[in-house]
Amino acid sequence: MPETAEHGTPAGAPPDSLTPLLRQRESVMVYDRTYVISPADLRAILEAARWAPSAGNSQPWGFVVGRRGDETHRRIVRVLSTANQAWAPAASAIIITLHQVATDFDHEIAYSDYAMFDLGQAVAHITVQARSMGLQVRQFGGFDHRAANEAFTVPPHWTATTGIALGRPASHGEEAALPGWVQQRSRLPRERLPLEAFVHASRFGHPADFLTDP
Ligand SMILES: Cc1cc2nc3c(=O)[nH]c(=O)nc-3n(C[C@H](O)[C@H](O)[C@H](O)COP(=O)(O)O)c2cc1C
To answer: How far is the C-alpha of 69 from the C-alpha of 52, rounded, in Å?
Structure first.
């Protein structure tokens, strides 16, 4: 496995210092298309979002949840990009995330500049909760946001933001049913910038000393 010059951390694999839930998280493209997620498990995963922190406890997030085989799922699949239609429908559930974009004076929920940040954090909680239950997610932005807002009558002070495919990873060999480009992409090595590229001290672009201390 290739190594980064900086620390000998293997590129493509998170380090052992991470909690196993994060070490084993990855954006899976190949899902077990027979696995049905139970309502209780789906609720547990959404509870993880519910209990995420948010600015002023504004909780400016929403989730349109389609389970494979139901009408919501079919309507979500219709608005996905062609590329995402190739792999996402096999997941047990597809979720369209929403965040608040303006104040709704009728309901007195003040818009917060941190709304999209808070949604992202809630989705991060979903990824970790899902992993703890043996599941994985792949988030995606490739869908027609306007069509999603229309399909689910999202009010003007909210908007569709991202998608989440959620399911049980397929065992090896099951990817054969997917187009070749999906199989190839799902096997690409995972890459990350080194810490030095984004952990700053004293001024932007100046890496912190502790990164190089033994
Ligand atoms: C906001 C967002 C949008 C993304 N859009 C897509 C997408 O449209 N299609 C797709 O296949 N993956 C999409 N991804 C998945 C990323 O490509 C993936 O997280 C990245 O390659 C890192 O892979 P890893 O999570 O396995 O480390 C998206 C992820 C995020 C967070």
So the answer is: 29
